[in-house]
Structures are given as C-alpha cells and as structure tokens.
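Protocol step 4 of 6: structure prediction from sequence.
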Amino acid sequence: MNEDQLLQEADRRARDYVSGADARRVFPTDQDIAALAGFDEALPEQGHPAADTIALMDDLGSPGTVASNGPNYFGFVIGASLPVAAAAERLAIAWDQCASTEDGSPAAYAIEKQASKWLLEILDLPRTSAVAFGTSATACGLSCLAAARADLLARQGWDVVNDGLCGAPEVKVVVPASTHVTVRKALQVLGFGWNRVIKAPVDDKGRIIPDQLPEMDANTLLVLQAGEVNTGEFDDFSTIIPRAKAAGAWVHVDGAFGLWARAAPELWHLTSGVAQADSWTTDGHKWLNTPYDGAMAICRDPQALARVMNSDAAYSTASAEAQKNLTLEFSRRARGIPIWAALRSLGREGVADLVHRHHEQARRIAAALDEAGFEVLNRVVLNQVLVRGQDDAATQAILAQVQNSGTSWFGGTVWQDRPAFRISLSSFRTEERHVDQLMNLLVQIGAKG
C-alpha cells in the first residue's frame, strides 16, 4: 500500500467512525477495554505493514474510545470536532509545519494572525492584545500568570527573567476558593506554594464575594473566573476589576468555556466588565468545537507575555508576536488553524447560535429534572446543570446507571462537600432529540436512583 492509499484508508476509517457517532456507545464496555490489551506487544524486530498498523489502531482502539465527538456526551465541557475544523487540522498535518515563526511557515503565520484578530473581535477584548495558541488552559494560564508575575516585579524594578526569584519581592496571589484545578496546577508549577495562595471566600454559586476580598496592592495577582466549573457562574467583574486595578494589581480571568458567553448577545451581560482585565485564557476544544487540543492565552500587553516566553536564538530570531515568543513551545504545530477554520465557517452568528442553543438545552434539562423531583443546584446561567438525587446514595446510583447505559454519559463532582453530578452542553452534534433521550433516561431512573 503506497502513501496515498494509506492516507485514503485512514481517512475511510475516520469517516466511518464519525458517521457512527450517533449510534456509538458513549463509554466503552468492559470487553472493549479488555481488548485494548492487544496493544501490549513486544517492540517488533521488523516493522509491520503500515496498513496493518492503522487497522489495529481502528479495530482495537475505536471501540475503546469515549464518544465525546458525538451528540450524547455531556461530561467535562468537552466539545466535538466541527467538520471544517477537523478537515483543516488534517490539511495542516499534511503540511507538517513547525509553526514557530513566519520563516518556519508563512502560511501558518498568516492564518494564525488572522485567527488572533477574529478571536479578539468575537470575544470583544482589547484589539491590540497578544494571542498565543497553546495546548490547554493549563499551559496558557501558566503563560499568563508568568507574564503577570514578571510585570508586577518589573514595576518594582526587579527583572525576573534575568535575575530569577531569589531575593525578589513576594507576589501575593488571590484566587476564588472555587478556582479550577488547572489554575492551581499552573501556580504550583510557577512556584507559588498552594498554602501561600489566598483563597477568597465565595458565595453559594461559587462566585467571589466582593466585600470579602482580601486587601490588594501593587504586588497582587488576582485570578477571577468566567464560568465556574460546576455552576457555570461568573465573578462580578464590573465591581472587582476596577477595585483591583486601582490597587495596582494584575487581573487574570480563567475563562476556559465561560468567556464564550461574550459571543452570544443575550448572554454577554454575564461577562460585563471582563475586558478590563490584564489577561485571559479560553479554550477552542471546548465550546468552539475544535479538535483536541487547542487553547488561547490572551494578554493585554503583548510585551509582558513576550518578555517571559521569548525563545529567540542565534539561529532563530523573530518578532515579539511570533508564536514561539508567546507560547511555551518552541517547536509547535499551528493550533490556531482549526480556530481560524471554525470562526470562518461559523461566523459571528454561528458561534452565537451555538452558545445560545446549548444554554437553552441546559435550561430544558434543568426544568425537566426539577419537575421530576431531582435537586437542581444551580441557576443554569450558561451550559452547566448541577444536580443531585434524593440523597447522596441516590445521586451515586443515578450517576452509575447513566454511565453504564451506553446511551449517555456525564461525570460526578462534589459540591459543598456532598456528591452531585454535572451535565455539560457543548457539542455541536447535540440536537433536541439527544437532549430528550437524556431527560427520558433520567426521569426513568428517577430521583431515588
């Protein structure tokens, strides 16, 4: 089998996989998982035929996948892959560009530059901000938080890039008590000990209580949330950010999925005031439905990000806006290409419709479950539905039955020290009939589990 035939075979198998997404079991069976032991082979002395390798990957691997690229997956705010974004990714893989600089790939550079402009426009963030296309909210958050620390120290005359942290003034970090684990991870990697990070009190919706914020000053790095992971709620940006900025603090907003509320006119109010922040993170592989993985670090001051991310070398220099000087990776693929393809294909109205549709679907689910006797724990301001059964045992039983059903899947969580489950709407493939199927399954199980 030659290269062209091999690619056609792989594409045929990929098309078959996607076309069967609606009927595919959402989580693999125990037998499917056990069959994955077939990958446990000794390293061959002589290579196997390429077609056999692709066949093995499909025959054993496909049944063992989670059907998150389908309509019946409601876990972890994991979007599906828009056909145009997946197709753009395939072409970009064929290009196989090291998209670090314009010299490395003029095409990737031009496309990612356009994607940056569109992203700032649709999210209505300062148009001169730097946009770095990275792997995840963790990596992009790390970049923004590193930029924040360097900038806060630079204002005090300390050059962290050249002089390091030994002897540097301490930067005080304030996060919501409900902050996402990726923020915690990024802070830990940067050396901010978790026990020293100040956790601001939050209300029963997971939002920072403005009147209980600790005192802030010019050494403060404040992290806020656009879309609390369980409730989908938003911090009060209009109140908190001006107060933080007046104190001289840097404000970073973790908006992995919630920042996309800015793309829907009827939900824009949830993020009122967020554009006053200094940096933001958001994902493409969640609500924009681009393939895994792709996220964005957005920084109001491009130089602040470039100062700590710069990777110029004698053999490879580039402008401050080159992606290698904005992201963690020197060698990188062009993660902005599927972002560009999705935005060009959907347009402003398409993105707004996607966000609005999932919000309405979440509201429908919440209303049906409330009527059926379940305890809906949040206001459903966005795309998250946080639910409990009649008691903790019932909640666990309901979760297990749904996950074992094969027809739908969502994950469990802990809210206010008690078990709950979280239904997330983010796949463009999820239609009303899929929502109906999920609601019928839950009503059939019942609040008593």
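Step 5 (inspection) to follow. The radius of gyration is 23 Å.
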